[in-house]
Amino acid sequence: MRISRQIAVCVASLLLGSSLAAQEVSxxxxxxxxxxxxxxxxHRLSLxxxxxxxxxxxxxxxxxxxxxxxxxxxxxxxxxxKDSNSVxxxxxxxxxxxxxxxxxxxxxxxxxxxxxxxPEQELYWQAAGWAHSVDRVDLARQxxxxxxxxxxASQLSANSLSNIYLSQGNIDGAFAAIEAWMVMPDGGAEGAxxxxxxxxxxxxxxxxxxxxxxxxxxxxxxLGLRMNLVRSMMAMGLRDSADAVIHRTFKDQGIRxxxxxxxxxxxxxxxxxxxxxxxxxxxxxxLLQWTDDLVLSNQEQAGxxxxxALVLAHMGLLExxxxxxxxxxxxxxxxxxxxLDEAMKIDKVxxxxxxxxxHSLIAMLRYPEKSSGYIYRGxxxxxxxxxxxxxxxxxxGIITAGDSEGLKVLQSMLTSIEEALQQ
Length: 423
Known about the structure:
The protein is mainly α. Among the domains are: 1-135, Serine Threonine Protein Phosphatase 5, Tetratricopeptide repeat; 334-423, Alpha Horseshoe (Serine Threonine Protein Phosphatase 5, Tetratricopeptide repeat), CATH 1.25.40. The chain has 24 helices and no strands. Helix 12 runs antiparallel to helix 13, helix 20 (337-349) packs antiparallel against helix 21 and helix 22 packs antiparallel against helix 23 (387-400). It is flat.
C-alpha cells in the first residue's frame, strides 16, 4: 500500500520547514524522485550494483566511521541518480542516518520509502517516534494521521494521536481519534477503556463514572473498565461503593484470573516504586484485602497465594509471607523456579536455616542449572555446622550451574571456606 503523494509532500514540508522540501532534501544528500526519473528513465539497477551497495553497507555497519559513512552514502546516491525508486538505496541511506543519529535524514528517508510503496507500516511509527523525540509534534501527528489514512485506525494510532492532541490541548481531537478506532472490529472494549482513561486524565470524573458504568454493562467481563469505574468512584468520594465493586470483581469467576493478577501486580509495582512505603500503608492494606478475596475464590490455584506472599513481604510481614510460600510450594510441587527463589529469600532473611536447607535442596534437584539452589544450600549447611557437605555442594554447583554471576559467588564462598579450614 502506497503513502499518498499529498501526504508525503505535506509531511516533507513540515519536516524541512519549506515548500521547497524536495530541493532541501537533495541538498542534504538525499536525492528526490524527480531527479532519477527525469534524467535516467530507462535505467534500472542490476543485481550486481545492489549487491555491491549491500556489501559496502554491511562493512559500514560492522565498523562505522565518517569515512565509511561517506563512502556508502556516495554509492547509494549514485545509484539513486540511476533509479530514484531503488528501495535498497533508500534503505541504506536510512540505515546510515539512523546509525549516525541524523534524525532529520531518518525521517526523510523513511518518507521516501513509504512514497515508493515499501510495505512496512513500522516505518511510519519509527519516523513518528523520531519526530516526537525532537519535539516535532506537528510532524509526528501528520505522520500518524497518514497511518490512519492508509491503513485505518488501530489501537496504536488511537493512543498516539490522542496523546498528541491532548498535549496540544485539543481534547475533541483526542476523543475523535479514539472514536475512529472504537468502530473498528477490535476497538470495542479496549477503545471504551481508552476513552474512559482520557476522561479520568482530564479530571472529568462524573462523566467518567457515567461512561464507565455504561461500558461495564456493555463489556461485563472487562477488568480494566471495572477498575476505571472504581477510580471514578474514588475520585468522587464514593469509597464504600468503590470497595463493593472491587469485592464483587475479585469474586467474579467470569473475569479471568490472569487479568485480576495482572491488575494486582501493576498496583503492587506502583506502590513499591514509591520511596516511603509506610506512608502508603492504607493502600497496602487495601491491596492485601483484594488479594485475600482472590485467594478465597481461587483456593485451588497457587498464583493468588504466591502474590499474597509478595504483598506481605513488601509490607514487612515476613513470617506471614513464609507461611504462604510453604503452602504455595506444596500446591505447586516446585514447578516454578521463581516461587522457590522467593521462598528461599524469605527463609534467609528470617535466618530459618532448616527451612532454607530444605527449599534449596528442592531447587538443586529440580533446577540444577540455577546457581541459587547451591548458594543457599551451601550457606545453610555452613551455618548448621555441616562444613564438609557445604564444600561438596559448592563444588557441585561450580560444575553444574550455568549462570556466570552465580558461579562467581559459588567460587568465592568455596574459597572462603577452604581458607578458613586451612587456618
